[in-house]
Amino acid sequence: xxxxxxxxxxxxxxxxxxxxxxxxxxxxxxxxxxxxxxxxxxxxxxxxxxxxxxxxxxxxxxxxxxxxxxxxxxxxxxxxxxxxxxxxxxxxxxxxxxxxxxxxxxxxxxxxxxxxxxxxxxxxxxxxxxxxxxxxxxxxxxxxxxxxxxxxxxxxxxxxxxxxxxxxxxxxxxxxxxxxxxxxxxxxxxxxxxxxxxxxxxxxxxxxxxxxxxxxxxxxxxxxxxxxxxxxxxxxxxxxxxxxxxxxxxxxxxxxxxxxxxxxxxxxxxxxxxxxxxxxxxxxxxxxxxxxxxxxxxxxxxxxxxxxxxxxxxxxxxxxxxxxxxxxxxxxxxxxxxxxxxxxxxxxxxx
Length: 351
Hints:
14 helices
C-alpha cells in the first residue's frame, strides 16, 4: 500500500521554495563542475571547457585533456557526492535524527574492509596483483557493505528497525569493521598498505572511465528510487503510531529505504572510498535549505556533489602535494558535526 501524500496549507509555499532552492543548487553544481574541469595542472579557460562539453573544443589537445583525463574525475566526484548525499538523507529520514548517516549502519566501513582486504592481500597474487585490485576491489567492497548491512537489518528486524536499536547495532558493526581493517593493514606489504590508507581517506585521484562501470548505474537507479519514495518518506518522518495509522508497514518501508541508502553508500564508496562527513552534512544541509520536514532527494544529491567537487579541488590544488579529497571533507565536516551536536543539544533543551 502506497503511503498517502501529506497536504497542508503551507505545502504550496514549501513546494515553490524547494523548486527555487533546487534551481539555485543546480546552478552552483554546474559552476563547480566546470570549475573542477578548468583548474588543473594547466588551467583551461571556462569558455573552452563549456565549448568542449558541447562538442566544440577549440583544439584536439584541449579536448583530450578534458574528455579523457579530467572529465572522469569530475563525473566521479558528482556521482560519489550524490550517492553519499542521498544515502545520508534516507538514513536521517528513517532514524529521524539529523546526526545519522550510513556510517552508523556499518555500511561504509564494511565496504572499506572488503576493499582493504583485496589491497592488503594482493601481494600474494603472484604477478596478478594489478588485475586482482582492478576487478576484485569493487566486488569485495560491494560484498563487504552488503554483508554488514544485511547482518544489521537481521539483528534489528524484530523491532521494526527501531532507530535507537539500529544505531547501536550499526555502531557495533562499524567499530568491528574498523578494527578488522586495521588488522588487515598489518598483513599487507608496505606499498599496498600505503595504497589502502590513501583509499581509506577517500580519493578520486587518477580515476579513469574504466573505473566508472557498474557503480554509476547503481547510483542513478538508487537516486530514482529514492525520489519515487517521497510520500513514504514524509509519513515515516512522523511518529511510529501516526505512520502506522496512515497505513505504513514500518518494518518493510524502513528496510526498503535503508536498503537503497546502503546500496548508494556502497556504490559511492566503490568510486571514491569512504569519504568522511559527506552523507552526514549533505542530508542535514538539504533539509535546512529546503526548510521541509525531510531532506529532498534532489537537494541532497546536489549538495553532496558540490561538496565533493569543491573538496577535491581544494585538496588537489590548494597545497604543494595532491591530497585525497577525503582530507578536505574531514576538515570541513568535523566542525560541521560539532555545530550539529551543539544545535541538537539546544533544541532538546528548548523542548
